[in-house]
Amino acid sequence: MKSLALLLLALVLVPFAAAADTALPRPAELEPDVQFWIRVYSEISTNEGFIHDQHRLSVVYDTLHFGADLSQRERERQVDAARQHYQDILRRLAGGTAPTDPDSLRVRALWGPDTSPATFALAADDVRFQLGQSDRFRAGLVRAGAWETHIAEVLANLGLPSEIAALPHVESSFDPSAYSKVGAAGLWQFIRSTGRRFLRIDGTVDERLDPFRETEAAAQLLSYNYRLLGSWPLAITAYNHGAEGMRRAREQLGTDDIVRIVRDYHSPSFGFASRNFYVSFLAALSIAREPDHYFGGFERSPETAFHEVKMPQSSGATALARALGLDRDTLKSLNPALRPPVWSGQRPIPAGYVLRLPVTAARWSPDLLASRLRGAPTAETLAASARTVPSTAVASARAVPVVATLAVTPEAPGPGTGAPGSQFYIVQGGDSVASIAATTGVAAGTLMALNSLRGPDYLYEGQPLRLIGDAPGPDPFGATALEPREDGEGQAAARPTVAFAPASPLPVPAEIAPPPAAAASPDPADPVDYSVAADGSIRVVAAETLGHYADWLDLPVARLRALNHLQGRTPVLLGRRLRLEFDGVPPAQFEQRRRDYHARLQAAYFAAHRIAGTQVYIVRRGDSLWSITQRDETLPVWLLQQYNPDLDFNDLHPGTQLALPQVEENSSP
């Protein structure tokens, strides 16, 4: 019976193994690249490095060795000298000089006897240095023991390949405190803009530094990438290069073959790291599967054990440690997401934070902890409160949830209907300010004043319009309001500085705002293509209007309407392609203004919300973009579009599957 059971188990496991091999292919054409990274991860340490060709990774010219006490400046000098040495050899070979010295003969042999002078000339510009990683990789194998069970569970629960558990070896060597030079942090190396989609990141809490929470966020992002790209090699590469970039690569080459993309896709942003991300992952996976083969025996860190309690109220760290009977260092080690101001007493641990306690400590319920904390406040608690509680006016504004404007009394009609009693109306295709005024009974001028519309050309499909109120307030979907200009015609003689700022009573905190001149996509997780096509056209995306385009181009709206034969004052349709004119503003500057607008739009939204998961929705007969967004009143159209970038929302058919991000308000102050 035992042998039969083993046979049955083997038969069950074979399909799963085959599926994993199919999902994460290891093409023979990329094997030399994989072997290069295996050598980097297992043969040479951070006191060594390869001088090699950046495209043909099997060509390694030399291995440099550095003394452990050598300064960084001296290391760089040695690297530069070695790089120059091999560039000189390659240029001599390109010029037809016969090799005579040992290094020249070895370089010629590496490339083969039939290599052309042109190839040697190109290779001279491709000499690169790669620092070794074997000591870091081995340390990462040891550290991984603390979280590997949790990672396996998270991946399994989302139906992701278990092999993805090796990715932190590439990202951080399983160091949860790792920071990159571009500001990525944690085990999975999230940058702020992407991290804020799934995690709380502010001056009090940075969940990127919590390996458990960041693992859950990474699994969500990878699942999202796979839904967008349909291929795990592309989804994993997008983890480094961004969803928009990989979609563009697939579109330009007309294939999702990772070999073709790695070899033939050329873009200024698709550099060495992006080209090698998938093959370096395959190398890390090979080593992680057989660590003893590469590093001999070693002992993994034990799994991190703890239990949790949700903070029933805010509390200073010292007061909390006293109430729990624990020392602060123990609490700090188990709760790495809490930032230094918490431990210095400048900020309290916030209410709702899920606190980790040592497994040996007593178990606390929120009610029991609350009763213990209800004693007389300590000096630290009072000081922290004084430093963090805003003024009465600001406190009142922050206490109101962003979606408070969407509340409807039980007697009132449903939200978005525009019927008497509704508090807001969602713009639909074909709407105009005049038609909305007629439907809602709210005068056109009042509509424009309530929603800070500088003109009728600033409507877009899916836009929530306030119908009741005395003054503009927070846009419930994080949209923007533009400051009216005196000319009243959309003439962009002077581009208003507030044109790209969120319409909110509070500014976007500096710690979560994007840089003012970011040249990249608003967020690597944003798959939308904001570029101008070769014919000077763009595709309309959510939260954009003719008024925006006029501002970004320094053109009157009337000129854009004439270019595109648009009549009336109705909004442009989501997904429509529009012709633009670049007489005063070059395409690159237009693209930058467009990206800045979306970066700020998204930063404002994710300052108050996070994505907790994804749900599949099947389109029913009679569904529209408007009705679908009403399923979740906090879901903006632009986020729905990001999760379904290839869907034509103007032509929805019953039975179509729609990915709906599940949004919840975060607890950021």
Q: Which structural traits does this protein have?
A:
29 helices; 11 strands; disordered N terminus; 669 residues; 9% strand; mainly alpha
Overview of the structural elements:
This protein is mostly helical and 669 residues long. It has five domains: 47-131, no CATH class; 135-295, Lysozyme; 306-389, no CATH class; 402-604, no CATH class; 609-665, LysM domain (Membrane-bound Lytic Murein Transglycosylase D, Chain A, Roll). Helices cover 42% and strands 9% of the residues. The chain has 29 helices and eleven strands. The chain has helices at residues 2-23, 31-42, 72-94, 102-111, 117-124, 134-143, 148-157, 167-171, 192-198, 211-229, 232-241, 243-253, 258-264, 272-275, 277-289, 291-295, 317-324, 328-334, 340-343, 366-373, 379-388, 392-399, 433-440, 444-450, 546-553, 557-563, 587-606, 625-629, 637-643, and strands spanning 48-53, 60-65, 127-131, 306-310, 354-358, 424-426, 464-466, 537-539, 577-579, 609-618, 657-665. A three-stranded antiparallel β-sheet has the order 2-1-3. A two-stranded antiparallel ribbon has the order 4-5. A two-stranded antiparallel ribbon has the order 6-7. β1 (48-53) and β2 form a beta hairpin. α3 crosses α4 (102-111) and α25 crosses α27 (587-606). The chain is globular. Mean pLDDT is 83; it is low at 1-20, 381-387, 389-416 and 471-521.
